From TrEMBL:
<dbReference type="InterPro" id="IPR003094">
    <property type="entry name" value="6Pfruct_kin"/>
</dbReference>
<dbReference type="GO" id="GO:0005524">
    <property type="term" value="F:ATP binding"/>
</dbReference>
<feature type="domain" description="6-phosphofructo-2-kinase">
    <location>
        <begin position="29"/>
        <end position="249"/>
    </location>
</feature>
<dbReference type="InterPro" id="IPR013079">
    <property type="entry name" value="6Phosfructo_kin"/>
</dbReference>
<feature type="binding site">
    <location>
        <position position="342"/>
    </location>
    <ligand>
        <name>substrate</name>
    </ligand>
</feature>
<keyword id="KW-0378">Hydrolase</keyword>
<dbReference type="InterPro" id="IPR029033">
    <property type="entry name" value="His_PPase_superfam"/>
</dbReference>
<feature type="active site" description="Tele-phosphohistidine intermediate">
    <location>
        <position position="293"/>
    </location>
</feature>
<feature type="active site" description="Proton donor/acceptor">
    <location>
        <position position="365"/>
    </location>
</feature>
<protein>
    <recommendedName>
        <fullName>6-phosphofructo-2-kinase domain-containing protein</fullName>
    </recommendedName>
</protein>
<keyword id="KW-0547">Nucleotide-binding</keyword>
<dbReference type="Pfam" id="PF01591">
    <property type="entry name" value="6PF2K"/>
</dbReference>
<dbReference type="GO" id="GO:0006000">
    <property type="term" value="P:fructose metabolic process"/>
</dbReference>
<dbReference type="GO" id="GO:0003873">
    <property type="term" value="F:6-phosphofructo-2-kinase activity"/>
</dbReference>
<feature type="region of interest" description="Disordered">
    <location>
        <begin position="489"/>
        <end position="541"/>
    </location>
</feature>
<keyword id="KW-0067">ATP-binding</keyword>
<dbReference type="GO" id="GO:0006003">
    <property type="term" value="P:fructose 2,6-bisphosphate metabolic process"/>
</dbReference>
Amino acid sequence: MATAGVPQRKMTYFQVGGPDADANVQVRVPNVIALVGLPARGKTYISHKLCRYLNWIGIKTRAFNVGEYRRKACDLEKEGDFEFFSPYNIKGNRIREECARLAIEDMGQYLSSKEGEVAILDATNTTRARRRMVAEFCANRRTLVDPPFRVFFVESICDDPHIINSNITEVKINSPDYKGIMSHEEAKQDFLKRIENYKLQYEPLDEEEDEDLSFIKVINAGKSFYVHNVNGHVQSRVVYFLMNIHLLPRSIYLTRPRALFKSVTVVYCSGAKGPHRERIKNLRTNGRISFQHGESEYNQLGRLGGDSPLSENGLKYAEKLKDYFESEDISDLRVWSSQRIRAAQTAASLKKQATATEYWKVLDEIDAGICEGLTYEDFQARYPKQFAERDKDKYHYRYPSGESYEDLVTRLEPVIMELERQSNILVISHQAVLRCILAYFTNKNTEELPYLRVPLHTVIKLTPKAYSCEVEMFKFDVKAVNTYREKNQPCDHSISAPDGISSENAKEQSDGSAPKAVQTSCREQNSLTESNHLPSVAVEH
């Protein structure tokens, strides 16, 4: 599937050794990733994940699903059952081959036009003849000025009946092939027969017979791998990514600390370790122990960046956050925190709820460079051209001597890899960082990413699904500075009620009851970027 709105980048190709040079020694060429495997082996899942990841790191990618071409070409009520996929069904074979050819041609046009850099062919490609057709098509794209396409096959092999049955039950029987046509049980039985038809002609990739091809075998959803003849940066990134993803159910929680402190001061947190223990200990006053990552002094003063401790409201939120995770009773919860004081305070408050707590420098807020500590009003007054450039292209704009959102994505790639590997995780970090993580899991493009809503005093719960990500937002009844600023909106800041809740409603929710949850699918997650319910603006990155 295409990711709309991903900025196009001018592609440059470098010939190494002349126009007849092998594609494997050329520096930059278009790449085709072709899936291989029987039905219900997670090929489309891999396709979706790869497409999302490559777009997120700035490699424009589109997936071409041959099944979608087939559904457009067939009457599913007459030609949608298992018999259509029999190797002895001449008409069915002809239609499926034609659909594959159309998808491959569209894929070729997508890459040749320089619209994208990577195309994913999401199909079974179970025969050696089909794979040779794909490889020859890519090799024949060579012209006097353009190199051939580089091909990488990704074969998903699975003999685990639990994984196969789960994929059929949760995904396949609800697909357009069966929805409204067969009952769930009829669909399941039909799909099992479809798999048997594919097995009759399945030829797995082989390191001897397919010696000249580049491929990876993903076995039983990542329990083991076989990698053969990897060439180039993109193929290496694909291998790296595939070796880190898993299918186990889990949730990822995101939250922001709020730093302020006028009369209330943060103090020593016995749960803090490493560089944070002494930094927080030095803030001790009156022997009071406070834990949290919420509103800060810089939040309230409308200043960029900073490393101030939690505000009074931030401390209140920390306590509610602790209560929330006590009620969730997550036995394997791990906490990852940035190394900013307010984040470390918040992580310390969850010492009893977490099986482990880690402090990551990579989770620190975006570096505002020479603008660190300025209010947005100061930024606009002192550097009007820089301010205007940032409003024009917030994703690519880099603070002088600081970072851009694009830099932040690069910095956070190891975090994404670890999040893909882990079970239940709470990430305590900052607005720009959490926007990048949220954009990855909700498949948001670079234009949307810098304007995603990550309100203070809110837990964002992400639950990855087969082809999407369920998003729930738990908003706590603690007042917070509103740090959201729309594109080109004048600078201002003030304290508001919880994000999206009026002051009147906030009073009604101040009885200590459970936080309000707003649930949405990432495919329909417009609420993360819409702006009609937030009345004021404070500092934000």
